[in-house]
């Protein structure tokens, strides 16, 4: 279950990062509330996953899912620029996540 919690926590990190961007510096109420609620839920699930996963593995995977997810949302939803260098960087993060998962087995 720890990996499930961690995966959901990572996805919630993407949600709160996007909502924070939409909150316009916490000046818009609904995105601000979504940011805070999903942030708390993400941290709680990360904490649950850390009961059985090593700190370094859990935190690295959590931030990696958030980073790559925010990267994809930025491109797909917000129209942010895409370049071969940015794609390569995201692929390196994903490969690191895979290696972390394999090393924890």
UniProtKB/TrEMBL annotation:
One of its GO terms (biological process) is xenobiotic detoxification by transmembrane export across the plasma membrane. The chain crosses the membrane at residues 27-46, 58-79, 85-104. PANTHER family: GUANIDINIUM EXPORTER, SMR FAMILY PROTON-DEPENDENT DRUG EFFLUX TRANSPORTER SUGE. Keywords: Cell membrane, Membrane, Transmembrane, Transmembrane helix, Transport. The lineage of its organism: Bacteria, Pseudomonadati, Pseudomonadota, Alphaproteobacteria, Sphingomonadales. Belongs to the drug/metabolite transporter (DMT) superfamily. Small multidrug resistance (SMR) (TC 2.A.7.1) family. Gdx/SugE subfamily. One of its GO terms (cellular component) is plasma membrane. GO terms for molecular function: transmembrane transporter activity. This is Guanidinium exporter. It comes from Edaphosphingomonas laterariae. Pfam families: Multi_Drug_Res (PF00893). It is a multi-pass membrane protein. It is found in: Cell membrane. Its main location: membrane. InterPro entries: EmrE-like (IPR037185), Small_drug/metabolite_transptr (IPR000390), Small_multidrug_res (IPR045324). Gene3D superfamilies: 1.10.3730.20.
